[in-house]
Design brief:
- By secondary structure, this protein is an alpha+beta fold.
- The chain starts with a helix and ends with a helix.
- The protein is built from 19 helices and 22 strands.
- Strand 16 (564-568) and strand 17 form a beta hairpin.
- Helices cover 50% and strands 19% of the residues.
- A five-stranded antiparallel sheet has the order 2-1-5-4-3. Strands 7-6-10-9-8 form a five-stranded antiparallel sheet.
Length: 749
């Protein structure tokens, strides 16, 4: 029987015991709850990281597809050569379309580029790696054709019917002159870059799957997944896919794992799956990441210390926070390095594209200037003959159009040189009044036709002789005055010149071109100096022009150390102002300008030098040869022709000539090689024959290259009569001077 004391002792001991067990229970509860929440938080954290990284990878693929392929495809569809080919206005696989497609393929590093007509037949194609094209093949059953021929751009991934290679097809509609699609241009890229992106990602497994779940691109470790169905397919769906041949003849068997769940298991290892869409008609990017181990042994280690766990919770949290912060900092550093590497890659790609563009423009310049030489030269020859009034008007229109086209070509080349930083500014003495007279001479006819008064207002304080780049100053004036005349139907255009600041060595001049034309709205004035900009799109149709003139003028003014701005009110005309720094010459420089002026004025006197001279004309283009020969023979010059460098050397070795006109690009032996052979012969046997380069290449670098090769002068195509005569006269006069000096030396000896 229990005594009262024993009951009391039991109560006294049961109280602390209950508290201990309660504390233990609470501690265990907190511990297990903490472990449970920690595991959940861990799972949530890694799932979030996986989601973010998957979306970042998808965005990287999207940027690759958009910037590297979609935009070039869109631009290619607007090329006149492509439009003519698709609408059968030119022959299939003609030289021009093949050069354009092959150049595009090489620059973009894609598999193939081709053009289809509105029936889906390939009319022109670049070559594949095997050297074959697709011309004559019909792919109207392909979605990239059926979508694009309806007027919308398309992206499509499939195995090539002809090449049997995986690729991404980017297509864009080709719109004809009536505004309706006349064909489709297609760029097919390989999947290598996407495969590299997947392989270099942080995921254990990654795949690009179609909207039906077919695995199309995987990382290097998962090649056995290719062409397997990662989502359940019904027999009807599978039959439709096989019939479409989107994935060639592959059986499309089921993948051992499915991507329609959040988790899966590979070789008994659990993985978390995350899927995100990509901009490819319902396609998706799938990433698989190993699930983090929950480490059950941690529970066994922590249970004995459950009673003390609450003492260490704060420290554990602090340690975890510190570790997490360190990981985040390391990840941020890695991300910054990745961004820097991507920026470097983008910079190198941009520089490579810029070099390719410059080379492309140089080649295009040569190809255009060669036929332009024939057009303009022959037109001038016919205009100098006896014509009816109607014939003369028609030929004057041809000549005016050719001059306008040549001006446009020069503007594009100038813009390209400025953009590439290759525009060079000279510093030579010149007379400002003479340059202003040139402006008036060049623009007077146009002003008179429009019945617009062209005048000059200049202050007396302007120095007569300056040192700078007269040609670039003249180019700025021509652009601004031409722009003023274009938008001034009546009234006047005035050139203004004043001195803003001067000292003993330099002067800052302010120039203006003021018109009474249509003016420029205030909201458009901020973009008027941008490339290809017009104050109103309607002015392009009414007044013409590319919008390059003002942009080029703005860049040239900056190169001259000045600024350009405008003052205008819509309907009340506009004034374009610009400043430029010039050095002031010493007495010797002024004497040089005077001497040069004397030579120019006496140029006509040297014409007598040309008569009965023997000149060797080296030119591979028949039209250019006929033109140059006709122009020169009018001055009673005896012409001997050669179609390539080998013939030129034979003629040079067999007889004496007073001068050689040398084309640069020729078969068998070009102009540089021919000049080298002649100069080598002269070094051994003596003598020096003047060699004048004739080329359609129009850059300063080309001129320097010709002079460095041993040529004496340089004229550009289209050839102008005055330019070629002045060049010949100059070289013949130099030869006479050298001969006279040699004679004087002999007499003195």
């Amino acid at each position: 029987m229990a005594t009262p004391q024993s009951e009391k002792d039991k109560k006294n001991t049961s109280g602390p015991t209950c508290k201990i067990w309660l504390s233990l229970f609470l501690s265990l509860f907190v511990l297990f709850a903490s472990v449970f929440l920690a595991l959940k938080a861990q799972s949530f954290y890694f799932n979030t990281i996986q989601k973010q990284q998957t979306e970042q990878l998808a965005n990287a693929i999207e940027r690759l597809l958009s910037t590297q392929y979609t935009l070039p495809c869109r631009q290619l569809s607007k090329q006149p050569t492509v439009i003519e080919n698709a609408s059968h206005q030119s022959l299939p696989d003609n030289r021009h379309i093949l050069e354009l497609l092959q150049t595009t393929k090489d620059i973009l590093s894609v598999s193939i580029v081709y053009v289809m007509d509105n029936e889906g037949t390939v009319t022109a194609s670049s070559k594949t790696s095997s050297g074959k094209g697709l011309t004559g093949e019909n792919y109207k059953f392909r979605p990239y054709f059926s979508d694009a021929i309806k007027g919308r751009e398309s992206r499509y991934a499939a195995v090539g019917v002809t090449t049997n290679e995986r690729g991404l097809y980017f297509s864009a509609p080709i719109f004809g002159t009536a505004g309706a699609p006349v064909g489709v241009v297609v760029i097919k890229s390989g999947i290598q870059q996407i495969q590299v992106e997947l392989s270099e990602s942080s995921f254990q497994h990654a795949a690009l799957i179609s909207d039906s779940g077919i695995v199309f691109v995987v990382s290097e470790t998962d090649k056995d997944w290719l062409y397997h169905a990662s989502l359940p397919l019904s027999p009807a769906q599978k039959a439709t896919l096989v019939k479409s041949r989107q994935f060639a003849d592959n059986p499309l068997t089921d993948l051992p794992i499915s991507f329609d769940e959040n988790t899966t298991s590979i070789d008994s290892v659990p993985y978390t799956i995350h899927t995100t869409p990509v901009a490819l008609n319902g396609w998706k990017l799938v990433s698989l990441e190993k699930q983090q181990k929950k480490f059950p042994v941690i529970l066994l280690i922590l249970i004995p210390g459950s009673l003390l766990s609450y003492l260490f919770i704060s420290k554990i949290r602090a340690n975890n926070n510190e570790k997490l912060l360190k990981e985040e900092m390391e990840e941020e550093i890695l991300q910054r390095r990745s961004v820097q590497e991507q920026l470097l890659i983008a910079k190198e790609a941009a520089e490579a594209a810029n070099i390719a563009k410059s080379d492309f423009l140089a080649n295009i310049s040569h190809e255009i200037r060669t036929p332009m030489n024939g057009i303009m030269g022959m037109t001038t020859q016919v205009l100098n003959s006896i014509l009816t009034e109607e014939q003369r008007k028609q030929l004057e229109i041809v000549d005016s159009s050719a001059q306008r086209l040549l001006g446009l070509i020069n503007s594009i080349l100038d813009f390209s040189k400025i953009e590439a930083g290759k525009m060079e500014i000279e510093e030579v003495p010149f007379v400002l009044d003479e340059k202003l007279d040139e402006v008036f001479s060049m623009m007077a006819v146009k002003a008179e036709k429009q019945k617009v008064i062209l005048s000059l207002e200049s202050r007396d304080s302007i120095p007569p002789v300056l040192i700078g780049d007269p040609d670039r100053l003249l180019q700025i004036f021509i652009n601004l005055v031409n722009n003023a005349l274009k938008f001034t139907e009546q009234g006047s255009v005035k050139i203004l010149v004043q001195c803003n600041k001067s000292d003993s060595d330099s002067v800052l001049l302010q120039f203006g071109v003021q018109d009474t034309g249509i003016g420029i709205p205030l909201e458009k004035q901020g973009v008027i100096f941008d490339s290809f900009a017009q104050a109103d799109s309607s002015t392009t149709r009414k007044y013409g022009g590319t919008g390059l003139g003002l942009s080029i003028s703005s860049q040239l003014v900056k190169l001259l150390g000045g600024e350009i701005w405008l003052e205008s009110e819509e309907g009340k005309g506009a004034t374009f102002w610009f400043t430029a720094y010039f050095k002031l010459p010493n007495i010797g420089s002024e004497a040089l300008v005077s001497a040069q002026d004397t030579v120019e004025k006496n140029g006509i006197r040297w014409r007598s030098i040309l008569s009965n001279r023997e000149i060797l004309l080296v030119e591979d283009e028949p039209i250019n040869m006929i033109l140059a020969k006709a122009v020169l023979e009018k001055e009673h010059i005896h012409i001997t022709t050669a179609q390539n460098g080998l013939e030129a050397v034979d003629h040079y070795m067999s007889r004496a000539f007073d001068c050689i006109l040398m084309d640069i690009q020729m078969p068998e032996m070009d102009g540089y090689q021919t000049t080298a052979v002649i100069r080598s012969h002269e070094q051994e046997y003596g003598g020096h024959i003047p060699i004048i380069a004739m080329t359609a290449h129009a850059t300063q670098g080309d001129r320097q290259k010709c002079l460095a090769a041993g040529m004496d002068d340089y004229v550009t195509k289209p050839l102008h009569t005055e330019d070629i005569f002045n060049a010949i006269e100059k070289q013949l006069q130099n030869s006479l001077s050298i001969a006279a000096d040699a004679t004087d030396g002999v007499r003195k000896a």
